Amino acid sequence: MNKKVVTGIIAAIALIVVGYFSFFQHSAQSKTETLTVGIMAGDKKTDEQWKLIKENAKKEGLDLKIKTFTDYNQPNAALSSGDIDANAFQHYIFLNDWNKAHKTDIVPVGETIMVAGRLYSDKHKSIKDIPQNGTVAISNAKITQGRTLLLLQAAGLIKVSDKVSDPTLKDITENKKNLQFKEVGTDQLVRVLPEVDLASVDPSFIVGAGRSINSAIYVRPLDKSQHGAVNIIATTKNKKNSSAIKKLVKAYQSKNVADFIDYKSGTGEVAVWKGAPTVK
């Protein structure tokens, strides 16, 4: 066999080997899916939690991109327009109201967390101390406002109509202390605490302000009647059965994420999906 033939054979084998590995490298890369998830801007603990979820997703062949929002109306609008593929920020009640109001087809695909409602005051040490005509700071965002009013009802300060699941200020049916409500942005509630008698502040903002959630003067016990307030992962109907969405839910609903939520987040949130470890 002459030298030219041998050289040709070697070159052919080299091309086959390179092609073989290139094909399988491309094949492996093509198996990695990308998904953009919208969440509300939070504190460092929120970032840590999603870093953990992203690591879980990577093991499943999913590259998660996180997009943060500051307005509760933005994540669903972005989902409907296709700017993001899923979001994780809202509860069942808010989603149902949103779909009705905007004629959208956003669907829940997995439960995440639930948080006990808490009332804070810089002026009073007990709910009983809230004075006649006292001022209560309340979020101007519907997703938070309804939950706060139900919290105030549980604390015995007001009563709301039993005909609505997500009440607004107009649904208050009894206000014996003639409480005055001050509507402010959700992210401003912790800042106005020194100026008001009472406020319900999201745990992430309490923690972000360097406060402890244990400083609350009232905590609403969690029970099954509050299922509508369970937070969820949501996506559009045409994406709900996609492999990427299933991988996202699996990455979130993992034991290491549940342990972080229950014991390390410092927000009082509890992992509530089916199979999540029970908080001790």
From TrEMBL:
Top-level lineage group: Bacteria
The places in or outside the cell where this protein is found are: Membrane
Where does it primarily localize?
A: membrane
Q: Which UniProt keywords apply?
A: Lipoprotein, Membrane, Palmitate, Signal
GO CC annotation: membrane
Q: Name one Pfam family in it.
A: Lipoprotein_9
State the membrane topology.
Lipid-anchor
InterPro entries linked to this entry: Lipoprotein_NlpA (IPR004872)
Q: Which family does it belong to?
A: Belongs to the NlpA lipoprotein family.
Record's protein name: Probable D-methionine-binding lipoprotein MetQ
